[in-house]
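Note to self: keep these together.
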Amino acid sequence: MTGAPASQPPPSREEVESSLRADPITKLGRVGVGSNAVFLAFVETTGGSTRAIYKPRRGERPLWDFPEGSLYLREVAAAEVDRALGWGLLPVTVLRVDAPLGVGSLQEFVAEPAEGLKIDHEKVELQLRGLAALDVIINNADRKGAHLLLDDQGQLKGIDHGVTFNSEFKLRTVLMDLGGSPVPEVFLEGLGALLGDRARFGALRSTLAHLLSKEEITSFEQRSRDLLTSGHYPTLHPWYGRPFEW
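Structure:
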């Protein structure tokens, strides 16, 4: 009698990134109805087909306070900051040029947890606080509850980062009740380690230079240093600090 085949380990971050960058996109399906076009993309890999979220530049609706055609770049920039910090709170997201509707961001699909999966709620709570810290430094203007997902391993993943990195303070978040409370030490240490490592932070700055303006990168660095110095989440206005729920 043969035993059940061993389950395959999930692909590494590097493997996911490589696939998103290079493997062919064979099919698209529109996701919901919103102000910007979002598509479920099917990417052909050596092991079959995998899903991803594709946001083409040409599907963006212009905003008065963000440069036109820049939202997909901000999606990628947010993931690059998370990657540099090593927090793993955002899905792998890459810049994809040869896509069916032209250049855009292509993001790892976040699959839901399997039924019955035991969720470590204390760990998720800590991850929420880490994501709130990330939102402060990337200046996330739209952190809705619907943008907080649990993946198939029960890990928190934040999505939708198109309205980030504005040079003016724009933070709006469903996590605003954390305002005034201390940022957990583990995240302050991680942020301090990145800022204090000239090589690592220089590499991040070089990557962001292809995605954001010089002023936006300078503002990002200043917000990061300010958060590290204060050690607390900023207190937001009870109305203007809340995300628009549409």
